[in-house]
Amino acid sequence: MARNINIPWPTKGMGDADYLYAFQQVVMPVAYDFNPDLVIIAAGFDAAVGDQLGGCFVTPTCYAHMAHMLMPLAKGKLVVCLEGGYNLASISKSALAVTRTLLGEPPDRIELTKPTRFGAATVDMVRVYQCRFWPCLASESKTSTKDALRSYQKQQLCDDFDMMELSVFRERISKSFKNQVLATVNYADAVPLLVIFHDPYHHQTGQDPNMKRLADAELYDTLTWYREWAINAGFAIIDVNFPNHIADASDTDELTYDKELENAKRAAERAELAIYLWENYIEPNDATAIFFMGVGSPSREIIHILNNR
Q1: Quick one: which of 44, 73, 74, 58 has its CA closest to 115?
Q2: pLDDT less than 70: residues of the chain
Q3: pLDDT in tens, 239-281
C-alpha cells in the first residue's frame, strides 16, 4: 500500500520550481524513509523544455538537480535508464546534464525556485493524503484535507475570477479563517455586491470503494455557475468559506485543530467573523446593492448579521 506515489499535475506548463518542490516535499523524504538498496531512474524527458507534446518547461539544469538529490541513496547504487521524450534536442541536452552530474560535476544554479500556485497546491494535497502511509510527510505537515482542498480552490478562484484574499485582523479568529475569505478586486467599487457564505469544498472518491487516492477524487464546487453569472452580470463577489474546524490562536507554528471544540465556541467564532466582515469589508464599500447568498450551515451567519446590524 502506498508504494506507488503519483503527483498528478492538473495542467501543462509546470517548470523547474514545481518539480523541485515535489522532490523536496514528497519524493526525497519518502525515498530516505524507504531506504532502498538500489535506485532505478526511468529517465523520460517528456517534461523537458522544448517538448511540445509534454507541454512542460523543465530545464536540463533541473533534471541534473533531481539526479543529484537521488545520488546519495542506496550508497550510490543508481541506474539511469533512458526512456521517453518527443524532442531529440531536449532529450540530448537533458540526458547530457544528468550524465555530467553522475560523473561528479555539480549542477548549475536554478534561477526560478518558487513553485506555481497549482504546483504547490498539488504537492500539498499529495502530502496530506500520503502522510497516513509515510510519517515523514506528516511530521512536517499539519494541514487537513479540507484545508488542502480550500487552498486548491483558492488558487482556482484567483486564476478564474481574478480574486484575492481578504485578511482577517482579529487575533482570535485570524488563523481559523486564513485563506477562507476571497473577493474580486472590485469588491469596494460602486457595483452590485454578492456575498456568498458557504460550507467547505466538497469532494468524493466516487462509487468504487478502491478509489481512495486523493488524485482520483472528484472535486465539486456547486457555486461555480453562480460566480460566473454574477461576474458576467457586473457584480463584485465576496466569497467566504466557513471551515468545520477552528484553529487555536495560541499556536505560533502552523495550523492545529482541536476536534473537541464545543459547538458553542465554534458558533461564536463564526458569528464574530460575520460581523467583522460586515464592519470592515461589506458595509463601508460603495456597493450599489448588497445580496447575501447562504449555502449550508453558514446561512445562520447571514441571519446573525441581519439581526445585529
Answers
A1: 58
A2: 1-2, 139-148, 201-220, 245-263
A3: 998 877 655 444 444 444 444 545 677 788 889 999 999 999 9
pLDDT value, residue 183: 93
Amino acid identity for residue 117 in this structure: R
- Cα separation, 183 vs 196, in Å, equals 10
- According to DSSP, residue 214 is labeled G
Beta bridge partners of 15: 57
What one-letter code names the amino acid at 131?
Answer: C
Q: What span, in angstroms and rounded, lies between the C-alpha atoms of 150 and 36?
A: 35
Residues 6+ apart with CB under 8 A from 46: 53, 54, 56, 84, 85, 86
CB 248 within 8 A of CB 155: no
Beta strands in the chain, from DSSP E residues, in sequence order: 39-43, 78-82, 163-165, 181-184, 193-198, 202-204, 218-220, 236-241, 290-295
C-alpha cell at 233: 452580470
Q: How many Å apart are CA 14 and CA 16, to the nearest integer?
A: 7
Residues paired with residue 291 on neighbouring β-strands, in sequence order: 194
